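User: Fold this; tokens only.

Assistant: Input:
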Amino acid sequence: MKAELNERITRIGPNTPCGNLMRQYWQPVALVDEFNPHLDPNMATRPVKALRVLGQDLVLFKNAQGEFGLLDRDCPHRGADLAFGRNEGDGLRCPFHGWKFDITGQCIETPGEPEGSKLCTRVKQRSYPLIERSGVLFAWFGVDSATAPPLPALDCLSAPNSHTFAFKGQWQCNWLQAFEVGIDPAHPSFLHRFFMDESLDDSYGKQFRGASAGDINGQRWPMTKVMREFDKPSIAVAAQPYGMRLTALRAMTDELTHVRVTHSIFPHTFVIPLSETITITQIHVPVDDTRTYWYAIFTSFDGPVDKEAMRNQRLQAVDLPDYIPKSGRHNNWGFNAEEQRSRTYLGMGEDDINVHDQWACESMGPIQDRTREHLGTTDVAIMSNRRTLIKAIDDVENGKPAPGVAQADIAATRTGPDTVDGIAPGHDWQLWLAQTVASKRANAPWNTVLALAAAPEKVLHTDKPQP
């Protein structure tokens, strides 16, 4: 890849070609948990957070009615930082001259102006539409005159809160290399290889520690064993209206094949199985060109999610309130040579495989130099996604619509998408796949009632008309 093209597909700041494309899609900007005083005591007295998303500085605050507002951070009066504003319940007041703004960005007070002044009615800070779903706040950063598409009708955003759990973490790297790790079906056989398997009884919430669907001679195999012993997947990519469906087949015997189906939702989301009944939808939102937050939404097709257990498992690996990983370049990502020799392929722990992906992405450098890479046949999804990304950037630059869920009809279509990780009959794995997917979906206690709840999306606030 030429250096100029690498720049074009990675830089996401305001008025950049890729940045203009990314602003056509809803972006996660915060977890609702970030405003929970039990996790961040400061939120009990001042529910205000400074944010940086897509290279823009923003302030997110919660008013006395529990409503959220997302505004540009520079006060429209003289440019002071509203992230230090006074949250007075009905709005955020700039300490510089006392101008106050409500959650829509409307200026509601200019106390230093003469009595009877109507200046505040003519001043409005740029605000951004927000939707709260599955424990995540999503914002849309398109131009003021444009209409936001509906939030995509994905399982993770359609299931009730009782059946979803959301978490996040920040990586010190560009968004594209962070995303590309998730659409690479070959890497789990190496990067996440464990030399020993654990009991399936203690696998809840742990990626690759659960069992694949199906069995071999009556034995249920952990995903770790499958990934370790069958490391040459045959990967197929199928274009979908929302992105790509990825199928990785690992021939196990003459009679059995391991089938793993995952999905890419353009431009920066992938959906993978955590277990037979839980999926992970992971979204990679750029902080700026060299930092990325991943947001993971876990969706259960069985009973309610044990949020406390999942949260406690993952809080051990990050520092609050900003969800910064405790491991990183500063401590060699926790690398242990003895562990690499005897327990894991990488040597960076067994409890949290996110650090494995973090190392892979961050060790490439802040922005991967793709002029030096050499792709192989297992990189078919990477190559396909890059072609789609390049075309989408060109299309938006030429005034054409962005693809996938940026289009209202595609976003509103119930997508799923369905993931699978299981052992299937080698001669008829397609039928097994269809039956497994249908069974999982039919058994989801919330799935059958979704059609009854297909009402128009409620946006928390916006000045733009909604479809």
